[in-house]
């Protein structure tokens, strides 16, 4: 038992690799099949470049890719940040006021039915080619999942805990801060993981509709120049970016919710 | 002899057309351990909800120390059915919850809880999260959270209902000694006949819904009861008698 615990603690990296081996294998298999198909079928590189080509081109164009990744990252983070602040504020409002909840929720849902294809060029038209329209579009696509996650999280508070607090004479604000807010955390992080993937896609889409720089405009330019290898290189970068942000949310959850990670603090 | 602490006079409540409590009158004296025993669904927990202010009775009166109970500042410390420990608070911070709500600083509250940890068998676990504790320990932490508030009276709602039989017996024995050492006044709601007989000075038996008090039994057995073989045998006779009363209720007509 002691040996087991020690050996597990001693080699965290190999343990991680073991756990993710199936996923790594699946991705590797896809790339191998893709590479094999391109080589054996003799398909033209302007139609479908091989993954090795894509990686090679990504490396050659790394400076341009990096220059265009930074604005996308900035738009993603700023837009996501705004969305989080607004979603959190509104979640508190609708949690305390059922009337406002009934009034506002249909509006929020309607905001999610707007097709991004139509709204993105309009927002660019109104707010120009700068950062602001990207922030707005990222906020638009991520705001609703965050709001729903928070509101459902509050509602998932154990009734016994709330009754206990009430029996202690706790005020509504105290009950919210002590019980409802922490109860919503798992829901919040579930929403965060989903939204963060939307956020990157939203930012790229916003840039696609008009921007000075960014992965979206890079993809558009590469496509217009018949360079699918560069399109895919930018896609590769955006995937890595999304994965990195996804990983960051998991790390953040571990830090914020230490009670939920079973590895630590188990019986002595 | 003893002071009348809690007095319920003809409490009744209905949810819509369903009469839950019909006529509940009972008393609890200072320092007394009283149980309310009844079939499940009889409205035992509803009675507690009325006492804690989560529900209000439609008629009847509640008096505490001779005065009608006020809506603000209830004199009860309530222990709910499931432990209701907050998974995100360490054990010590779960135990200080009531004190913090009363306005005590976290530091003072911890200082007040710390000396009690030993008696509740929680030493060394105060920095753990509830998920790392066994059911019995969680229940002891919940009781510590309840008693540390130093309210005049404890309300225990089936505190051991979720535990396995062996742990439950141990916890009952432990609670018995705890109750001997402190002079708590307690009202216990349970459907466990044995638990009621072992712990109580008096037992009220509720009828099925709409609930009335059908019987009041004084348990004049010396304490501690659980450790003594001869007393357990006497208690068994009382238990059988109570079970007869409970079995005499007709099956609830299914709606």
Spatial separation of the terminal alpha carbons of chain B: 47 Å
Q: Radius of gyration of chain A from the CA trace?
A: 23 Å
- Please, what is the CATH homologous superfamily of the largest domain in chain B? P-loop containing nucleotide triphosphate hydrolases
**Gyration radius of chain B, rounded:** 18 Å
Let me know the average pLDDT of chain A.
88
Q: Runs of chain A with pLDDT <50, length 5+?
A: 1-10, 263-268
CATH superfamily annotation of chain A: MetI-like
What is the helix tally of chain A?
A: 11
CATH architecture of chain A: Orthogonal Bundle
Q: Which consecutive residue ranges of chain B, at least 5 long each, have pLDDT under 50?
A: none
Q: Helix content range of the residues of chain B, please? A: 25-40%
Tell me the number of structural domains of chain B: 2
Q: Ends of chain A: how far apart?
A: 12 Å
Per CATH, the class of the largest domain in chain B reads Alpha Beta
The tally of structural domains of chain A comes to: 1
Would you count the extended β strands of chain B for me?
10
Can you walk me through this structure?
The complex is a heterodimer of chains A (268) and B (255). With 268 residues, chain A is mainly α. Chain A has one domain (59-260): MetI-like fold. Chain A contains eleven helices and no strands. Chain B is of the alpha/beta class and 255 residues long. Chain B has two domains: 1-75 and 154-253, P-loop containing nucleotide triphosphate hydrolases (Rossmann fold), CATH 3.40.50.300; 83-151. Helices cover 33% and strands 25% of the residues of chain B. Chain B has a ten-stranded mixed β-sheet with strand order 5-4-1-2-10-9-3-8-7-6, with helices on both faces. The termini of chain B are far apart. The A-B interface holds A 158, 160-161, 163-170, 174, 178-179, 182, 185, 257-260, 262, 265-268 and B 49, 52-54, 72-74, 76-78, 80-82, 84, 86-88, 97-98, 101-102, 124, 127-133, 149.
């Amino acid at each position: 038992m002691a040996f087991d615990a020690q050996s597990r603690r001693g080699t965290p990296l190999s343990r991680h690799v073991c756990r993710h081996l199936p996923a790594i294998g699946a991705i590797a298999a896809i790339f191998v099949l893709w590479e094999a198909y391109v080589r054996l079928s003799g398909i033209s590189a302007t139609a479908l470049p091989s993954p090795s080509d894509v990686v090679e081109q990504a490396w050659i164009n790394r400076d341009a890719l990096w220059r265009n990744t930074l604005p996308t990252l900035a738009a993603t983070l700023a837009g996501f940040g705004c969305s989080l602040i607004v979603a959190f504020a509104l979640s508190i409002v609708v949690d305390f006021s059922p009337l406002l909840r009934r009034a506002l929720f249909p509006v929020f849902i309607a905001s999610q039915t707007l097709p991004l294809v139509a709204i993105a060029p309009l927002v660019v038209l109104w707010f120009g080619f700068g950062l602001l329209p990207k922030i707005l579009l990222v906020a638009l696509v991520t705001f609703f999942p965050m709001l729903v996650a928070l509101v459902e999280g509050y509602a998932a508070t154990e009734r016994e805990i709330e009754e206990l607090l009430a029996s202690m004479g706790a005020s509504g604000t105290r009950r919210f801060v002590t019980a409802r807010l922490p109860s919503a955390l798992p829901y919040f992080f579930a929403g965060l993981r989903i939204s963060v993937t939307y956020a990157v896609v939203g930012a790229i889409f916003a840039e696609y509709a008009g921007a000075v720089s960014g992965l979206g405009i890079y993809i558009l330019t590469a496509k217009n120049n018949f360079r699918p290898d560069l399109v895919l290189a930018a896609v590769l970068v955006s995937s890595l970016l999304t994965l990195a942000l996804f990983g960051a949310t998991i790390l953040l959850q571990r830090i914020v919710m230490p009670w939920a990670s079973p590895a630590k603090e188990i019986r002595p | 002899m003893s002071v009348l602490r809690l007095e319920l006079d003809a409490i009744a409540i209905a949810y819509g057309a369903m009469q839950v409590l019909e006529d509940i009158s009972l008393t609890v004296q200072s320092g007394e351990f009283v149980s309310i025993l009844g079939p499940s669904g009889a409205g035992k927990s509803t009675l507690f909800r009325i006492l804690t202010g989560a529900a209000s009775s439609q008629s009847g009166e509640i008096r505490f120390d001779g005065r009608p109970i006020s809506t603000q500042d209830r004199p009860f410390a309530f222990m709910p059915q499931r432990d209701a420990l907050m998974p995100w608070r360490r054990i010590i911070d779960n135990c200080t919850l009531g004190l913090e709500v009363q306005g005590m600083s976290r530091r003072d509250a911890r200082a007040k809880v710390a000396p009690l940890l030993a008696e509740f068998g929680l030493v060394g676990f105060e920095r753990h999260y509830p998920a790392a504790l066994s059911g019995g320990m969680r229940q002891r932490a919940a009781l510590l959270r309840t008693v540390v508030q130093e309210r005049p009276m404890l309300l225990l709602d089936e505190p051991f209902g979720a535990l396995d039989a062996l742990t439950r017996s141990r916890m009952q024995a432990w609670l018995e000694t705890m109750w001997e050492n402190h002079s708590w006044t307690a009202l216990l709601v349970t459907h466990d006949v044995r638990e009621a007989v072992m712990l109580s000075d008096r037992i009220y038996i509720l009828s099925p819904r709409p609930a009335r008090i059908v019987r009041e039994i004084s348990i004049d057995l010396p304490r501690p009861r659980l450790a003594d073989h001869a007393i357990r045998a006497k208690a068994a006779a009382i238990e059988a008698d109570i079970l007869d009363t409970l079995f005499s209720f007709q099956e609830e007509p299914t709606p």
